Amino acid sequence: MSFNLSLRQKLIAVVLGVVLGISSMGLYSTISLGLLTGASEHVMRLGHVTQQVSNLEVQLLQFSKLRETANEETISAIDSALGGLKSNAINQLNTAADNLDDDRAKSLLSDTTTQLEPYLKTLDQWLQVRKSYGLSAQSGTLGQLEEHSAALLSEIEVFGSFAARLREIRAKEKDFLIYPTEE
Predict the structure, then answer these.
(1) Are the CB atoms for 79 and 127 separated by under 8 Å?
(2) Where are the chain's structural domains?
(3) pLDDT tens digits along 93-104
């Protein structure tokens, strides 16, 4: 089956083929750009969430470093830092999870949230115990223990001299009973 086309029809067919090819390439490019734009937006959201989680991690590490230096001067800063973490940390993770479309990332963030809540409660309990226990040898229960131990030590010293005096008296009694004198 051969087509008998004139030169004009052949040129129109070639031009039509070129136009259809260019149009299909343009359509493919448009679709590809749309997919790339969607992927780029996904990566941007993921980057933003990663930045939020990294900021939270930095806050937790800063709190950990501050906690190591707990004393009477830094306890108020530790208390306020823990209050800030308790109010913001869970909200940051929940907001980050809401901004994601990826189910795996959402599940990882929800796992982190469920692990972070008890951790923050434990840190709060640590802070309360540390405040009541005492931050130095002069404050809290530790200070009371130090006072009581000093009082007990002074009483033990009295008993120590009393015991030495009692041994001395017993030795004299023994000498008296063994070697009676004429007195």
Answers:
(1) yes
(2) 47-135, 137-183
(3) 888 888 888 888
